[in-house]
Amino acid sequence: MVDSASPYAGAAWRVSLAYAALFLIFGAAMPYLPVWLAGRGLSGEQVGVVIAAGMVARFLAAPLAGVAADAAGRSRRVLVVAAAGLTAAYALHAPSTGVWALAAVTVLASTAYGPMTPILDSIAIRAARARGFSYGRVRSVGSAAFIVANIAAGALIARYGPEAMLAWLVATAACAVFAMARLPEPSASRPAERASGVLKALARPDIVAALAASALIQGSHAFYYGFSALVWRDAGHSGAVIGLLWAWGVAAEIVFLAAFGRRAERIGPAGLMAIGATAGLARWTALAFEPGLGGLAALQTLHAGTFAMAHLGLVAFIAGRVPAHAAAT
User: Fold this and answer.
1) For 157-166, what is each residue's pLDDT tens digit?
2) Range name among 212-216, 231-235, 256-260 with the lowest pLDDT average
3) Of 114, 260, 272, 326, which is least surrounded by CB within 10 A?
């Protein structure tokens, strides 16, 4: 039982609000940032360079910020600073032109948002344990917000052009600053505990294997995240239809997390990740044959496997094997 003075009092709605704010950003940025970059005159190859530069920044920033959050015991503060930095980075996109300037501001944005999901996940896992609520259900709120952003940003682009997406990103990132400030703040651990917890975790072959499996499964989404909107646009689909396709995939994720998340955990982390990998083999192979709109919608349903099952499998694995004071790292 957690009393009203606990940092986790009312945690479920506060964590849900933070997920909603975060994924209102990502739901527009993931599918439509390449469209915006193309609208600024970049070729497909240049879009790839800019997106890749952002991914490298994200790869470097996320673990460093996780270490900082665990070391200071200030996960919430790190998220607030990251959201503020993301707002500024998206605002700097407006005057930027040319591949190198756009790569620079994309690196700034990726550095800010790279750590946000994993650190928020670490807070959510601890809060779910303390309060006894389902991690999958609060995470599904973020997925629902992702759908809203897919549809809304797609409709805005269809009506006003790609620049409307940038206005959405600046506004939602600013809202995220306030949502992150409402999160519970887990207590800090002693430095010796943190160092010991991280080293012990990284020395375990099962943890290394789980991280590698998750990296391969989630990394298989890279072309989809970076170029699906451009490919589907060139195939003749409108911005609104592209938004609905993305939303359909995330809807499948929501149904899985909200309705079946607790039951799916009985399969075990390894089983969930194996199902996710198998779904990825089917999804990406079939997409390579350029199916029509009906086929695209059917394949988007597999997002419940390729992302949601694999993600839940890793989260369950970490929650059961990594000490709380090393969770953000």
Assistant:
1) 888 888 888 9
2) 256-260
3) 260
Structure tokens at 12: 């479920």
Candidates 270, 225, 264; CA nearest to 139 is 264
- The pLDDT score that the predictor gives to residue 5 is 47
How far apart (Å, rounded) are the C-alpha atoms in residues 29 and 113? Answer: 11
Task: Determine the Cα–Cα distance for residues 112 and 93; give it in Å rounded to an integer.
Answer: 14
- How far does CA 298 lie from the centroid of its chain? 22
Residues with Cβ within 8 Å of 49's Cβ and at least 6 positions away in sequence, in order, are: 99, 103
Helices 310-321 and 116-131: crossing angle in degrees, nearest 10, is 60
Which amino acid is residue 92, in one-letter code?
A: L
User: How far apart (Å, rounded) are the C-alpha atoms in residues 115 and 291?
Assistant: 35
- For residues 157 and 37, is the Cβ–Cβ distance under 8 A? no
Query: Is-above-0.85 flag for pTM?
Result: no
CB atoms within 10 A of CB 94: 11
